[in-house]
Design a protein that fits this description.
This protein is mostly helical. It is 37% helix and 7% strand. It has helices at residues 11-22, 32-38, 45-54, 82-91, 103-106; strands spanning 30-31, 66-67, 96-97, 100-101. The strands form 2 sheets. It has a two-stranded parallel ribbon. It binds a DNA duplex through helix 1, helix 2, helix 3 and strand 2.
Length: 116
DNA sequence: ACCATGACTCCAT
DNA sequence: CATGGAGCCATGG
């Protein structure tokens, strides 16, 4: 019988999250749900956030480019807090209104993105 | 294996 | 758009 890819190892889930997050172009942001979808689980947004939380690797994983569905920054940012995330984003050209990003302009269009 | 936690999201009010 | 409740996924004790 055919063995489909539906049985993806969960532990690799984190790896997938990191892989996707690292592909986010500079000056753009992505939502947890978006990442989750690209990872194969459109409703694993929570797991995505958790993945980033347990993997504080600033410089390797641009977690500051991840925002919630409203474009709001994480309230419990792993390093430095929202202020840090906001600064990093504005530094890349992403305008942040106190704690919110305009997804209409800065949302990463991953429609054409394919995770290998 | 079960319970509790968490950087989320959707739906109803 | 604000608030509250329920759902979903993965992890750790």
């Amino acid at each position: 019988m055919n063995y489909e890819v539906s049985t993806l190892p969960k532990k690799n889930f984190y790896e997938k999250v990191y892989a996707v997050v690292m592909q986010i172009p500079e000056g753009k942001v992505a939502t947890y749900g978006q990442i989750a979808m690209l990872c194969g689980s459109p409703k694993a947004a929570r797991a995505v956030g958790y993945a980033l939380h347990v993997n504080p690797s600033p410089g390797i994983i641009p977690c500051h480019r991840i925002v919630n569905r409203e474009g709001g920054l994480a309230k419990s940012f792993a390093f430095g807090g929202i202020d840090r995330q906001k600064e990093l984003l504005e530094k890349e050209g992403v305008k942040v209104d106190i704690d919110t990003v305009d997804l209409k302009v800065f949302l990463w269009d991953s429609s054409n993105f394919i995770l290998e």
